[in-house]
Amino acid sequence: MAMVVDYKHDSSFPYWTSIRRRFDPDSPFFSSGNLERELLAKQVALDLTEDERNQLEKMIDNDARGVFCPIVGCGARLTSLEDFEDHYIARHTASCSVCSRVYPTSRLLSIHVSEAHDSFFQAKVARGYAMYECLVEGCDLKFKNYKGRQQHLVDKHKFPTSFEFFNKAHPSKKKRLKNQQKRRMHKKDEEASSKMEVENETIDGLVSAVSKLSTSDSSPSNISFGRRNARGLTFVPRSIHAPREKK
Amino acid sequence: MADDSPASHRRDPIKSSVGNVAAQRRRQKAVTVGKERRESLFRAKRLCRVGATGDGDVSVEENDMITDEEGFLLDAQTSSAVGELKSAVASQGKGAMQKRVNALRELRRLLSKSEFPPVEAALKAGAIPLLVQCLSFGSPDEQLLEAAWCLTNIAAGKPEETKALLPALPLLIAHLGEKSSLPVAEQCAWALGNVAGEGEELRNVLLSQGALPPLARMMLPNKGSTVRTAAWALSNLIKGPDPKAATELIKVDGVLDAILRHLRKADEELATEVAWVVVYLSALSNFATGVLVKSDVLQLLVERLATSNSLQLLIPVLRSLGNLVAGDSHTTSTVLVPGHEITDGVIKVLVKCLKSDHRVLKKEASWVLSNIAAGSIEHKQLIYSSEAVPLLLRLLSTAPFDIRREVAYVLGNLCVAPTAGEGKPSLIEEHLVSLVQRGCLSGFIDLVRSADIEAARLGLQFTELVLRGMPNGDGPKLVEQEDGIDAMERYQFHENEDLRNMANGLVDKYFGEDYGVDE
Lengths: 247, 519
Known about the structure:
heterodimer, A: mainly alpha, two-stranded antiparallel sheet, 7 strands, 43% helix, B: mainly alpha, 0% strand, elongated
C-alpha cells in the first residue's frame, strides 16, 4: 500500500492529523444525547403529543442557538446552519458584470466597479482626489492611491498583509480561456506598472475630455492607464466632441 | 388581517360547548407554558407521580394544563394542607401519628397531581421545616415515605426550589442506610437524585455529607426498582465536572462487579441507568476508565448494542463505548486490536448504529469510528474495508450537519497515516484516491462553505490532502470541478483569520497565475 510522503516544508498550513478526540460530559457535543435521555425518561409519564415531540426534536437539532454570518460586516443571525447557504447566495454573491469577480456585499462590488472599470474614477485619481475608499463600512476614510488604502486596512483594521482587494481572480476555466485570448491580443499595449483594467476603448477618450472639463487648467495632464497606448489628448476621437456641443 | 370576502367572515361556531372553550383555553395556556414545560422536560430531575411501590391511591390527572383558576385553587389547598401538617406535627398522644400521616398524604397528593406541582405555595407556607421534622429517626415507615415523596417533588422543579431542601439532606442521606425499608430508601434516593441533578454546588454538598457510599451500596442487589433509582441518582451525583466522585465510586467494594452484572443480565430499564453511570465514570475519571477497560465491560457493551433496539439504552451504551475508546489509548492499542473478535464486533455494532434512524446514534457512532480510525494503519485498513465506508459516504452527502461533521473526521482520518512526531503526516494514497473516486470531495467542499468554523477547517484540510496527494497532479482539477475554488475564495472576506489564511494559502499555491495555462 503506497504512502505519499511529502518533503516540502510548508509549516504554515495546519495539516490534517488523525488524533483521538475526547469530550467532557457537559460538552455541547453530547447535549443532543442528554436531552434525548431526559425526554425519553419523561415522555411516558407526560404523554407528549406528536407535535410537541417534533418541536422538541427540532430544538435539540438546532441547539436553539442559531448561527451568525461570518462574513465581515454582516453579522446576520441565521436560525440554523442549513440556512447559511441560502443567506450567502442571497446576500453575499454580488458579481461584477464586467470581469465576473464576486464580492460579498453590494457595497464592495460597487467600490470594485468604480476602481477597476470606471474611467471617471481614474480621472479623479489622476487629478489627486482621494478616491480609494476604506473597505470597512462606517470608516469613511478615503485615500489617494491603492497602496495607501491598503496600508490603512492593514494598520487600522488589522487586515492580513497578504490581502489584496484587487486580487488575481481565479475565474472558471471558460472565463480563464477567454481572458487568455484577450491578453494575447493586447499584450503589446500592456503597461507594466498598472494592474487596472479598463476595457472599453471609447471611454479612454471620454476620460480625457472629462478631465479637461473638471479643471480650469487646460494643459493636458499626463494621463496614462490601462493597456491602451494613451499618448495624450492628440488621440481623442472626433466623435467625443459632439456631446459637448450638444450641451 | 383585512379580508373582506364574505366567505371568510368568521363566526363563532354555534355549537360551541364548554369542552371546546376549555380545550381552547388549555391550548392557549399550553403555548405560554411552552417554555416552562420545555425547561422542565430537559431537566435532569424527575417528578414522582406514582408511588415507588406502585401505590394506587393517586389519580394522576390526564389533563395537565390547569387553568389559572384551578392553579389558584391548588395553591390555596396546598397552603391549607401545610397548615394541617403543622398542627399534626405539633400534636401529641394517641392518634397523633395517624394525623401526621394523613396530613402528609394530603400534601403529597397535591404535590403529585400535575406536571407543575404547587411547590412555591408549599414553600411559602413553610413546608420544609415540617417535612424535616417528619424525617426524624424512629418515625414510622409510612411517615418517612410520604415526607420523602413530598420532598422529591419539591426538588423536581426550579433551582431555588431544589436548594430549599438543604436542611433535609442529612436526614435523607441517613435513611439510605441498610436498616431502612426499601421503599423508604428508594424514595429518599429519588429525592437526593433530584437534588444532585440541580448542579455542581449541590452535588458537592451531597458528596461532602457522605451521600455516595450508601447510594453505591443500593446498586449492588440484582434487581428491583430501588437498584434502578439508586443508579439514576448516582449518575446525577457523579456527573462532575469534578472527577473525584466518579473515581470514588469505582473504588467502592462491589461496584465494578455490580456494573458488569447489570450490563450483562439486567432488564433494559436497569441496564439503561447503569449505562449512564458508566458514561460518567468513563468521561470523567481516568482511573475508572483504566479499571473498566481492563474488565469485560467492552464486550458487554458490544452485546447490548447488538441485541437491543431501545434508543434509551443504546444512547448511553454507545457513549460509554465512545468514552472508553476516546479516553484511553489502551483501548484501541490493546483490546480492540484488528483481528481480534471483539474488534470485529465493535465495527459491526457501530455499523448498526450508522444504519439507525436516530441522529444521536449516527453522530456518536461516527465519533467512535473516527477515534478508532485515529489508531494504527491496521485500524484504518480495517475500517476502510468494512461496511462502514459506503454508509459514511452516503451520510456525508445526505445527513444533517452535525453528523456530516463527524463523518468527515472518520474519512479524513482514514487518509492520513498515524501522527509520527514532527512534520506533515503522510497520506495513505490508496484510501484517499478510492474515497475521492467514490465522490466524497463534494461533501467536504460543502463543509468548506459552512458557517461552522470547525467544519470549514475540516473541509479545507481535506481539500489540502486532495490537492497535495492525488496522483498525476489531478488534485487541483478535481477540486475545481466541485467548485472548490469558489468555495475557498469566499474566505477573502471572512472574519476568521485562520480560515482566511488557510483558504488563501491553498488558492495561491495551487491555483496561481499559471493554473490552467498549459491546457
